[in-house]
Amino acid sequence: EFRHMKVWRKQWYQRRVRGTANVVKMSTAVHTGQEYAPEDPRNARYIGGKKKEVNPNHAIRMVAEEPIEVTGSNHTWCSGGDGHLGHPKVFINLDKGITKPCGYCGKQYRAH
Q: Are 110 and 103 a contacting pair, CB within 8 Å?
């Protein structure tokens, strides 16, 4: 039943969008490349002069700017921060000279 609803929703959306050549382009680029057709109901939130606000600091860029932490052993751990601000502690096995990211926060580690 769930799959049937998913197919129906996709067909409904395709019927609504079919034939519309002009697509609403966001004034600012977003990391997902969102574009909606003019009659798409998701555009209702921008009625009355409201504009889409986009944070220019995408998380993937912010993580890439963090320095790589070099450790003296072949394993390390990451908790993402102090106490309640972080994530569950994960252990990361490291190979010499290969950078490995934390699966939760993306912080990168390398064995020396």
A: no
Q: Which of 32, 34, 30, 24 is nearest to 55 (CA)?
A: 30
- Please name the residue that has the structure tokens 């252990």: 91
CA 27 to chain centre: 20
- Per-residue model confidence (pLDDT) at position 21: 47
pLDDT in tens, 21-54: 444 454 556 667 776 676 778 777 777 777 777 7
Identify residue 3 by its one-letter amino acid code: R
Determine the Cα–Cα distance for residues 47 and 41; give it in Å rounded to an integer: 11
- C-alpha triplet 92, 97, 103: angle, nearest 5°: 30
